[in-house]
Design a protein that fits this description.
152 residues, alpha+beta, 6-stranded antiparallel β-barrel, 6 strands, disordered N terminus
Length: 152
């Protein structure tokens, strides 16, 4: 009796692992045959963390750039952008992707001004649109020339 129970459990486990393996193979095959379907989902998700920033500096045309959300709380979002986008405007406007027609005022909380490769940190307080997500900073990937890039 003990041996038959062990054999039954073992065969159920093998069947489960075989089913799991087939499922993973099917997903991999779909990813290889239709990579743009998976990529489109990633792009749709990334858009939820990308913002349009407009800075107004006296005597100049408005500067428009992009940034990305790095932290979201109930009524606050933190955004990182290039310093040159906001330089000279301590309160630029930010437009979140889900509400493209409703700009919100941001506050520059940190900036590496004068540095052509510098960053700026912004804080938007108020009702943050539903669906906004924070994008993770990848500090491990090394960037080299000639790589494919997607702009949003």
């Amino acid at each position: 009796m003990k041996g038959s129970l062990l054999n039954r459990t073992s065969s159920e486990s093998q069947a489960f692992h075989a089913c799991l393996g087939l499922s993973l193979c099917a997903l991999l095959l779909l990813a290889v045959l239709f990579p743009y379907a998976l990529w489109a989902q990633d792009i749709a998700q990334v858009k939820k963390g990308v913002v349009k920033i407009t800075a107004h500096v006296e005597g100049q045309q408005p500067k428009v750039g992009t940034g990305f959300v790095v932290r979201v709380e109930k009524d606050v979002a933190y955004i990182v952008t290039a310093a040159h986008v906001t330089e000279g405007d301590p309160k630029p406007t930010v437009t979140f992707f889900p509400l493209a027609q409703q700009p919100l005022t941001a506050q520059v909380i940190g900036i590496e001004g004068g540095d052509p490769h510098g960053l700026a940190a912004l804080r938007v307080a108020g009702p943050i649109p539903e669906g906004v997500v924070a994008l993770a900073l990848d500090l491990t990937t090394k960037v080299a020339g000639g790589e494919a890039v997607t702009f949003i």
